[in-house]
Design goal:
alpha+beta, Nucleotidyltransferase, domain 5, 22% strand, globular, binds zinc ion
């Protein structure tokens, strides 16, 4: 599975895992397994890839990290309206982070391309 194909598939806009699979099939004629694709993307985490995971409605059940299986922590921040709210999830074990996206989006996972010129703070640690 070539990551460049995934990138081309996502160039059409954000999509769920299922939609991503049908776009890849359209581009390559190949059908990939959802589990395999998901694992690959979460493990490789190319710089251009954004992944959002939908939170369950109940706040008491925090989702598990898709990479290592540890329970993820909600990271609080201030919204534009000035309210304190959980903005993203971080895995305390492996550091995987994901935005908490719009609950109206029906997908469990939402994949999208990050802007090319997003500043990367890799040297600051
Ligand atoms: Zn983890």
């Amino acid at each position: 599975m070539d990551l460049e194909i995934v990138r081309r598939a996502l160039a059409r806009g954000p999509c769920s895992l299922g939609e991503l699979i049908s776009r890849i099939e359209e581009l390559t004629g190949e059908k990939v397994s959802p589990m395999r694709l998901k694992r690959l993307l979460l493990r490789e985490r190319p710089k251009w890839l954004g992944v959002d995971i939908r939170l369950r409605r109940s706040r008491s059940r925090r989702p598990r990290c898709p990479v290592c299986g540890a329970k993820m922590m909600e990271v609080l921040g201030r919204t534009v309206e000035g309210e304190i709210e959980a903005l993203y999830l971080r895995c305390p074990r492996c550091g995987f982070e994901t935005l908490i996206h719009d609950r109206k989006t029906p997908a469990r996972y939402l994949f999208y391309l990050l802007p090319e010129n997003l500043p990367v703070n890799e040297n600051v640690k």
